[in-house]
Amino acid sequence: MYTGGLGGYGHQKWITERAVTDNEEAYDYPVIRYAEVLLNYAEAVFERNGTISDADLDKSLNLVRNRVNKTMPKLSNAFAQANGLDMRTEIRRERSVELFYEGFRVDDLKRWAAASELQKPLIGIKWTGTEYQTLWPTMASAAKDAEGNIIIDGSRSFSDKNYLLPIPTQQIQLNPQLTQNPGW
């Protein structure tokens, strides 16, 4: 049984469909994806106005959402209200799901001033009391939380200084009017 990575979750993003030697084929990695542009638009409209119209959702986020699964319900203001959903959270969740494993998460959390999420332990699958306990016995000694989920990394940290990158020392030497970012 394939259990994915250390945490038990696997993904197919950027996985090759056939085995070939490196010099025979290469990936066309995207520089920017249309889905990212659409999600950026939805987020920007919501953040600017504090709200987003159903028409704007239909020409942005819902195009991404329904690209593969045509039966998935559209996100609308009525749908969000009827299901007790926060629109900002849903726009951010959609971005997290769509752009998984593409290197956006940390920058998104910083932009949203929500990087405290990076201080929480990184949790994998529920192991205790599930089929994985039998099928994946090598994880018996792995750290687990109170619910029996595998703890992949319990020592993550993030401080306020990490919201900004350090200004390279060479740049400060070239321009003495520059000062280092706080904490660096």
Short characterization:
The chain is mainly alpha-helical and 184 residues long. The chain is 34% helix and 5% strand.
| Strand/helix succession | HHHHHHEHEH
- The main sheet orders its strands as 1-2
- What is the CATH topology of the domain at 30-112? Serine Threonine Protein Phosphatase 5, Tetratricopeptide repeat
**Residue-averaged pLDDT:** 89
User: Tally of extended strands?
Assistant: 2
Give the N-to-C terminal Cα separation: 46 Å
Shape: globular
State the CATH architecture of the domain at 30-112.
Alpha Horseshoe
Strand content: 5-15%
- Number of discrete helical segments: 8
CATH class (first level) name of the domain at 30-112: Mainly Alpha
| Rg on CA atoms, Å | 21 Å
- Kindly name the structural category: mainly alpha
Low-confidence stretches: none
Main sheet: strands, sense, barrel = 2 strands, antiparallel
Structural commentary:
- By secondary structure, this protein is mainly alpha-helical.
- It has a domain of 83 residues: Serine Threonine Protein Phosphatase 5, Tetratricopeptide repeat, CATH 1.25.40.
- It has eight helices and two strands.
- α1 packs antiparallel against α5.
- The chain has a two-stranded antiparallel ribbon.
Describe the protein's topology.
Elements: H1 34-49, H2 54-58, H3 61-65, H4 77-82, H5 87-98, H6 105-111, E1 122-126, H7 131-135, E2 149-153, H8 169-174
Antiparallel strand pairs: 1-2
Helix pairs in contact: 1-5
